[in-house]
Design brief:
Elements (H helix, E strand, L loop, with lengths): L1 H10 L3 H131 L2 H4 L1
Length: 152
């Protein structure tokens, strides 16, 4: 033990060093309990929250992508339904238009045929009247053009 004491004395380790070492240990234990441990706990909690929030954000982003894909599928289906309804309505409207145009053409043809028949009837009637009145008109014209002596 005397050899150990000689070595310690040769190194310059004296009693004030042991006191300083004791003060350091007591200060370190107090700081560890009051400062370092709460700081590390808060740091780990923040890091856990950050990693947890990042995981939550990734999950929300994945859900958003899923919802967007679902929305796109539903939108395509809705567009197809709308197109089918539009095409059906357009086809029905085209059929109705053709029907109405056919009816209008038929009505116009009937009206034209009636008008032609009426014109033909009036023409025939006028011709008959003209034929009936031709001798009288001829006599009137000859009376006016020819002198009285020639007419008799």
């Amino acid at each position: 033990m005397a050899a150990l004491t000689n070595i310690i004395t040769a190194l310059g380790i004296t009693t004030p060093l042991w006191v300083q070492l004791g003060i350091f240990l007591v200060s370190y234990i107090i700081l560890r309990v009051l400062v370092f441990n709460p700081y590390f706990k808060a740091f780990q909690g923040r890091q856990g929250m950050t990693e947890g929030n990042q995981t939550k954000a990734e999950q929300i982003f994945a859900q958003t992508r899923e919802l967007e894909a679902t929305y796109q599928r539903k939108l395509r289906g809705l567009n197809a339904d709308t197109k089918a309804i539009y095409d059906k309505a357009r086809l029905e409207a085209t059929k109705e238009q053709e029907k109405v145009q056919g009816e209008a053409r038929e009505a116009a043809r009937v009206t034209i045929d009636k008008a032609r028949a009426q014109i033909q009837e009036q023409l025939n009637h006028a011709r008959e009247e003209l034929i009936k009145e031709t001798p009288q008109i001829s006599r009137i014209i000859s009376d006016r053009l020819l002198p009285k002596e020639v007419r008799q």
